[in-house]
Amino acid sequence: MKMLKGLLFAATLSVATLSQAKQPDPPGQVAPGERPVNEAYLFAHMTHADYGRLYYSVSLDGLHWSRLNDGKRITDDYRGHPDIAQGPDGTYYIVGNQSDAATAIDLWSSRDLITWSRFGSYTPDLKSTPGYANALQRIGAPKLFFDKASAQFVLTWHTPHLEGTEEDGERYWASQRTLYVTSKDLKTFSAPPRRLLDWEMGTIDVFLRHEEGKYWAILKDETYPTLQWVTGKTIRIASSDSLLGPYKDLSPPISPNFREAPMLIPSPNGKAWYLYYEQYPGVSYGLSVSEKLGGPWYQISGYTFHDDWDKYGLPPKVRHGTMITLSRAQYDALVKKFGIETSQR
C-alpha cells in the first residue's frame, strides 16, 4: 500500500511539474550575445472601437507588442486599412481609402513615420479592367509594394463583380478579385487596372513580397469553407518568377479557417518568418512560423491566458494593419515621441 501511495504521489508530482514546465520559444529569436539582424518592428493598425483609423504598436522581438501614444490615434487624417511601403529614397508611404465605396485610393507620405502628410490620390477606372467589365464600384484594402528590381510600386486591392443577395450574401465575397496598377512615382499610374491572379476564386487582402529569389503573393482565400472547398477563409501563399505573375503553386492553408488580414515579418535573427493573421471579427490574432516562405508552416501558441503557453502577445482589440521592420534608432524615436505602454511589453 505504501508503495502504491508513493507511485501515485510521484505521478501526481510529475503531472504538476509538466503542467508548470516552460514551453519552447518560437524559432527566430537571437541567442544571448548575438546581435539581431532585424532590430525592431512597427505594427500600424486599426482598433475594434475605431475601425479604419491609424494606431501604432511596436516590438523588439516580433512577438510581444506594446501600444504607443497611450492608445490614441497617430493622426486624425488617415482613413483605411493601413499598409506601408518604403520608396527608393527612404520615404514611407501609407495607403488607404475613405471606404470600400469610395472611388479614390489615398496616399500619405512620411520621412520618419511620425508625421504623415497627404501625398496624393488615384482613382482607378474599375470597369476598364480587361476581362472584368462587370466590376462593381468597390475598392477593398489597398496595399502597396515597392519592387527594387524594377524600381516601381505595385498598388493592389480587391474588387467584386456580384452583389450579395438575401439568400446568398457570400456570393459578394466569393466574387472578389485582386486588381493592380503600377507606378514609378505614385503620381501617375499604369492604365487600365489588371487582374493580378488568374484563378476563378475569391481573393482579398493580397500583398506582394520579393524574397528567397522569388515573388510571393500572400492572400486570403475568400471562398466560404465547405466540404467542397475546405480552404475557404484561410491565409494561403503563391509564388512567381515575375513581379506581375503568373502566380502558381498555391499553398494549402497556413492558418485555420475564418482568418484574414495577413502580415509578414522576418524574425530578429533573420532565420524564420512570422506570419500574423486576424481571427475576425476582432477576436484575436494567430501566428504561423516557417524557415522558408514555401513552408512548411506551423502555428505558435498564444491567447491562451497562460504565461507558459503564450509565446506572443498583442494589445487587446487591435485590428487589421501592417507590420514592418525598424532600426533601433527608429524604434527609440517613435517611443520618445509617442510614449510606450510598459505594461504591454
TrEMBL record:
<protein>
    <submittedName>
        <fullName>Glycosyl hydrolase family 43</fullName>
    </submittedName>
</protein>
<dbReference type="Pfam" id="PF04616">
    <property type="entry name" value="Glyco_hydro_43"/>
</dbReference>
<comment type="pathway">
    <text>Glycan metabolism; L-arabinan degradation.</text>
</comment>
<dbReference type="InterPro" id="IPR050727">
    <property type="entry name" value="GH43_arabinanases"/>
</dbReference>
<feature type="signal peptide">
    <location>
        <begin position="1"/>
        <end position="21"/>
    </location>
</feature>
<keyword id="KW-0378">Hydrolase</keyword>
<keyword id="KW-0732">Signal</keyword>
<comment type="similarity">
    <text>Belongs to the glycosyl hydrolase 43 family.</text>
</comment>
<keyword id="KW-0326">Glycosidase</keyword>
<dbReference type="GO" id="GO:0004553">
    <property type="term" value="F:hydrolase activity, hydrolyzing O-glycosyl compounds"/>
</dbReference>
<dbReference type="InterPro" id="IPR006710">
    <property type="entry name" value="Glyco_hydro_43"/>
</dbReference>
<dbReference type="GO" id="GO:0005975">
    <property type="term" value="P:carbohydrate metabolic process"/>
</dbReference>
<dbReference type="InterPro" id="IPR023296">
    <property type="entry name" value="Glyco_hydro_beta-prop_sf"/>
</dbReference>
